[in-house]
Structures are given as structure tokens and as C-alpha cells.
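This follows on from our talk about sequence and fold. I would like you to pick a protein and set down its sequence and fold. Go ahead and set the record down below:
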Amino acid sequence: MTMKWTNVSIPEAEQMLENGDILLLDMRDYRAYLAGHHPHALHLNDLNLRALLKHTARSVPILIYCYHGHRSQDMAQLFSDFGFTSCYSLEGGYEAWFPEFRGALKDLSDELIEWQLLNGFDPANLDHRSHNNETALMQLCRLGRAELALELMEAGASIDLCSGDGTNALWMAVQSADMTLISALVQAGINLDQQNDNGATALMLAMSLDMPAVVSLLLSYGASTHLTTLDGFAAADVAASRRVLKEFNRWTSAHHSVAA
């Protein structure tokens, strides 16, 4: 399939909107749209997609954004396949266009401020994003720096944000196998079953990294065993070893027995 759409930066998108007639589409879920959207954006959903494809002049430029700038590429390709001549996807998506700002609820330690500055984060904004749209909390969780990550959470850092590929802080905590961080994030209300842009969850990651203890912990908190990736793989399908699959089966069998 030939790509007939273009990725555009935020400055380019703003210039396009300023220069002329363009249809701006927000393809995030409706709750996210209601919570905040570009003032000129039309919410794109299954109900109006067909009407837009059928009744919109093919010469009208189409600019589409999603959460992180990945799925909007597929939608731009779809409009292009239907004959639209000028289709664009916004790099970084809505979260890059309208970044969150969250000030600290308490004074931060000198150690945390120093770490933020050394790693390119603004201490004044706990949700400041860096490479791959990651926050300081996400990076600290990946590094297993539990003390600093917990301090950030206590100061008010958001736990519900996602990186450029759709992963949240729980995914990073699983990467570091930090049980304290995993528990703290789940107990704080993080989305346990957040699926990244490929459909993978934190449980799937733990299975693929051969982490029986982490798998058991996530299952004890209620992680879904039935979700699948875009390729149709469930958690059990990506087990890296017999021991992690054995732990998964042991826990799920025991849980099903109790439920029965």
C-alpha cells in the first residue's frame, strides 16, 4: 500500500489551521474529547466516519490527531485510500499538542530536583515530558528508583499519562521488576490493563520477560488474562519460559476454582 499522507509537526499543523480551510479530526475516545480538544476539532467516531468519507469533497485537506500520533497515521491512510488528496497526521498527537502542566503539591527534595534537571525535566512541572513523550515518573519507574518515584507521586505527579507508544508508568515499573513501585502504582489507581499501541499490557510484558513473581503480583491485583495484542496474542502466548507459564497457570487455575 502506497503512503499518500504526510506527518506534520505541531507548528506546521497550527500554520495550516491559520492559513485556510481544513477539516481537523479528533479520533480519541469521546470522554477524552469532552475533557479537552482543539476548539476547531470535530470528534471522529464510527457513526460519522462513513458520512465524512461519503459526503466530504476530496479536495478538502484532512488533519487528524489521536493520543500519541500513531493511530492517526492509519486513519490518514484510510482517507487517502478513499481519494482525499491532502491527508495529514499530527506528530505526537494531542498529548504533545496540549501537554499537561502539574505543579508540585509539596516541596521536592534536592536529590529529586537534581535528577530532574540532569535528565531534562522541568521540576516546576511534574508532568513535563521528555524523549518519547515520557514523564519523569515513567523514567524513574523504568530505572527502579522507587524512592524518587514515590516522592513524585506523593507530590502529585500524574499516573494516568502514557508515553509516545502508549505505555504507562506501570509498564516501566515492570521493566525494572520493582515490586514496591508496581504495588504503589496499582494501589494509586493506575490502569492495570493499559494496552500500548501494539495492544500489549504490563502482564504480557512480565510474561515475555520471564518474571514469575511480577506475574503473580499483577494477577493478584486483577490483571486481565484475556486481552490480546493487535496480532492476537494473549498473555499466555508470550510466556518466555515454562516456569513463568507454570506460575501463570497455577494462579489462574486457583482463581477459577475459587470463583467456581
Observations:
- The domain at 100-191 is CATH 1.25.40.20 (Serine Threonine Protein Phosphatase 5, Tetratricopeptide repeat).
